[in-house]
Amino acid sequence: MAIAEMSHVRLVGLKRDQNKILDALTAHGLFEARATDALSGEFVSGDTSRYRALKLKQSKISFALGFLKARHAEMSGILGVNKRAVKRGAQPIDYTLSDVKYSDGRTLITRADFSDAAAKEYDLLHVCDELEKISFGIVDCKSRISELRGAAAEYEPFEPSPIKLSELKRKGDVVLMLFYAKSVALPTESLNGLPCAYDVRRGDGILLTVVCRAHNEEEIGKQLGAVGFTRCEFCDDCTAKQKLDALRSEQIDAEREIFELTLKALEYEKYVGELRILYDVIELDIERAEATQKFLKTDSAFVLEGWLPKVAAQPTVDEVTAACPDVFVQLLAPEERDEPPTLVQNNKFVTPYEQITDMYSPPRYREIDPNPIMSVFYFLFFGIMIGDAAYGLILAVAGFLVGTSKKFDVGVKRLALLVGMGGVSAIIWGVLFGSYFSIDFGTDISIVLNPLEKPLLLLVLSIALGCVQITAGYIVKFVALCKDGKPFSAIFDCGSIILLFVALAFLAVGMLPSLAPMLGIEVSFVPPAWLTTVAVVLALTGVALILLFGGRKSKNVFGKAVGGFKGLYGLINILSDVLSYCRLFGLCLASCAIGLAFNQLGNIIMGIPGVGYVIGVIVLAVLHMFNLALGVLSAYVHDARLQFLEFYGKFYDGGGRLFAPLGSRTKYVRFS
Questions:
Q1: Which residues pair with 206 in a beta bridge?
Q2: What does 454-490 look like in DSSP terms, one character per residue?
Q3: Which domain range does residue 166 map to?
Q4: d(CA 65, CA 131)
Q5: Residue-wise pLDDT tens digits, 205-237
Q6: Is-above-0.90 flag for pTM?
Q7: Within 13 Å, how many C-alpha atoms sit on residue 659's CB side?
């Protein structure tokens, strides 16, 4: 499969038919709008007022969902605190929290559910308005609580005093004052020198009650202020404690009001599902509004342009003309200056691997789709890095169960299928390696090699696979350059490297009998002598092409000569790329070695008399799951790295834009 061909659709229709036309175009989710080219005449751009109105509605729904989620979380915390308090004898709260889920995943619904939510738009927006009023009430209560706490903090230092605050004033020639200091040391020397009587109360700080003559008030206030005392300026007709009790009572009332408002808000949780659907109903309307802004319009007509997959273009146009006979439609081939969106079409095996490429960058419309080739190597490398058949079986079962379930979103299912297919690869490699939970069976049951017994052979296999993939990358680049009408660039830039890798392959086969003892394998055939000769000829041809034509793009003779040697020096980078595939060897060996170490630990625990066997099995299960999780994470990341740097670096540019048809942009729902 490849990147789907796109058709550029240009349509002229009457404004009264605009909705019908859009319905027909978007019925199958295959139309993506694009900005209409400027036309002569009395055309104007689309109106933005509807777009703004829709965004306002959506923001209301978004606020309502966020508000309900916050109230749900707060009530959950309140009930948790109350549950612990009940154990100490507190009164339980008679309320059961709903089981509404506020997950970010998309819910599977039918088109009928979608239509029902759209029909209830007025009622659901009224729910949003009610929740907004409740939120204002809660904000007001929280503001009052903040003010009350601030006021209480000012009265708290004077709480131990039994004196009414209204008595802290001048009565004739006598003044009663109240001071507070955070210091725990009473400045006795400063007080003894003052013409006054005082009383000291200690708590978190020092509370000082002072009685003096009126003409000494200012002097005493200054001296006490200098040593850190603050004078009480309140004049309420009650004690500080009574004032604090009143403030705390008001705070409790405000908190109780918040609790009651929260209960009232949570009564609307039954609408969460419909609100989520309505959010996406409006999102699709917003998509349309965005599309209509790209149209050019007159008082009675409009012009739209967009993209349709070529295979579906004519049937879609037929549906449009059937719905609106007065419409005029053109299907055009993309021009050279156009940048059509990319719609990748692959089989079920390759499709999960598309998200690996998309993490790097989607292919451009006119670029070769790398996924079919990349998926084969990703599949092979993932399995070799796990390297255990039992681990692979677990991954395959779990991956395919999740990947084929309707409960999960497309992205999760694709990732699960990718891991599941990696599990199949791990089963294959595990059987070849004779590895089943890294168990030591006392004899070699491997078909090809045992990684722990023949690590050098595993290293050679890893490098060989790397050479194959890098060669494949240059072959793809060779084909792409030929398609672009650059055969000489294909031969000189890619053909030379391909010749070197082919020469390396012939040389490796020729040297295999002499290397076999070192690799721990037996070779029963004698390679023909001409293999080495062919290898040398191919290698010399490749080097000659690089030396002679590596600097062909330079404008002067010196640059052309130096360019050839620069091309030879660049072979070091290719060698570095080849050595990067040693990570296949390292991760496979590490997984096997860690699994073997865990098995030895489990055997030691199982040898303990009594419950040792049971504990050993549990410990082994936990440790092997840890090793499996570590292996999957490492395989996923390092496999992707090999594709991005070593493989895609040879031929792939990316930078494309994925096809995004109208009706595909939903946040909360997906359709069955």
A1: 181, 202
A2: -HHHHHHHHHHHHHHHHHHHHHHHHHHHHHTT-HHHI
A3: 155-244
A4: 9
A5: 888 888 988 888 888 888 888 888 888 988 889
A6: no
A7: 20
